[in-house]
């Protein structure tokens, strides 16, 4: 093969790799506006915590319990069943379905039985919380673009977080997006929503690299719904000058700051730098890729879920 052919092949492979990258939509103006509006108009929920109720008798945290509702994957009219259908995009709009948007039985099973359960399990393994000590009663109007089963208004038991899941059409490069719907009285998200693009739900096997990448993307998006979002931590975000240019940074988050100091070997560090480039979808709710290159919560989605993210 000639040198020119090799160079051309490398260019094609690079472009194909870039094209296949998931584009996180969390910081797009449309999604941020929806999240902010819902959080602003929704009263915070009082949820008794185990440590709060039992005091010194309970000292240990427990793995995070996320309970997912898949009602919108089976309710007629809530997903694409044929090309030409007009269906919700779960962010206030509707979309005319293409053939690739159809949620087949295999795609539904991939999301419901493989991708999301694995993502939830990874988060449970990494995150411990002071457990909610009573069923979460989901108020009417929560996550109002999603279907909330009537039983959830009476309470979802054994949960620290309730997640509503849809599979509506989305931009070609977006595998999923997610966000918080309700906060508790301490400002911690306890109810949220996630939408998965049906175009990207086909699996080539349960344990392939492509499947693991989808799971990793789901973890990234669920972390946004759990609170790694400018719409939730805006009270901790300040303006600063970093390397001679304006930047957005996280302050007053001790555990994340301690992890960043350790990661960078800089005891004097007094902030965690956030992404401020990359256009809509990237800036504001991600770690600065230049600094935290392989971290899962950079906009490009690395593979390392670090103590920096868990500390936020």
Automatic annotation (TrEMBL):
Binds 1 zinc ion per subunit. GO terms for molecular function: metal ion binding; metalloendopeptidase activity. Its cofactor is Zn(2+). Zn(2+) binds at residues 220, 224, 286. GO terms for biological process: cell adhesion; proteolysis. It comes from the Eukaryota. It is found in: Membrane. One of its GO terms (cellular component) is cytoplasm. It catalyses: Preference for hydrophobic residues at P1 and P1' and basic residues at P2' and P3'. A model nonapeptide is cleaved at -Ala-Tyr-|-Leu-Lys-Lys-. The active site is at residue 221. Keywords: Cell adhesion, Disulfide bond, Glycoprotein, Hydrolase, Membrane, Metal-binding, Metalloprotease, Protease, Signal, Zinc, Zymogen. InterPro entries: Peptidase_M8. It is an enzyme of class 3 (hydrolase). Its EC number is 3.4.24.-. Belongs to the peptidase M8 family. This is Leishmanolysin-like peptidase. It comes from Neobodo designis (Flagellated protozoan).
């Amino acid at each position: 093969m000639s040198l020119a052919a090799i160079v051309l092949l490398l260019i094609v492979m690079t472009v194909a790799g870039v094209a296949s990258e998931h584009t996180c939509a969390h910081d797009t103006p449309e999604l941020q506006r929806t999240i902010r509006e819902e959080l602003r108009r929704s009263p915070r929920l009082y949820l008794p915590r185990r440590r709060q109720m039992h005091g010194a008798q309970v000292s240990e945290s427990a793995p995070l319990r996320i309970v997912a509702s898949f009602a919108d994957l089976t309710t007629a009219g809530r997903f694409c069943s044929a090309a030409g259908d007009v269906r919700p995009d779960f962010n206030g709009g509707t979309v005319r379905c293409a053939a690739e948007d159809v949620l087949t039985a295999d795609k539904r099973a991939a999301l419901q039985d493989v991708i999301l359960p694995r993502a939830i399990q990874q988060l449970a393994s990494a995150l411990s919380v002071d457990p909610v000590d009573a069923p979460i009663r989901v108020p009417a109007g929560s996550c109002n673009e999603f279907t909330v089963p009537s039983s959830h208004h009476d309470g979802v038991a054994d949960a620290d977080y309730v997640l509503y899941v849809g599979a509506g059409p989305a931009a070609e490069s977006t595998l999923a997006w997610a966000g918080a719907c309700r906060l508790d009285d301490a400002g911690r998200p306890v109810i949220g929503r996630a939408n998965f693009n049906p175009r990207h739900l086909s699996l080539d096997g349960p344990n392939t690299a492509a499947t693991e990448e989808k799971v990793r993307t789901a973890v990234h998006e669920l972390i946004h719904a759990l609170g790694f979002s400018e719409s939730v931590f805006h009270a901790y975000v300040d303006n600063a000058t970093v390397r001679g240019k304006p930047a957005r940074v996280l302050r007053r988050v001790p555990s994340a700051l301690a992890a960043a100091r350790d990661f960078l070997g800089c005891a004097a560090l007094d902030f965690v730098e956030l992404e401020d480039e990359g256009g809509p979808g990237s800036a504001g709710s991600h770690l600065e890729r230049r600094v935290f290159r392989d971290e899962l919560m950079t906009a490009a989605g690395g593979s390392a879920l670090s103590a920096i993210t868990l500390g936020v």
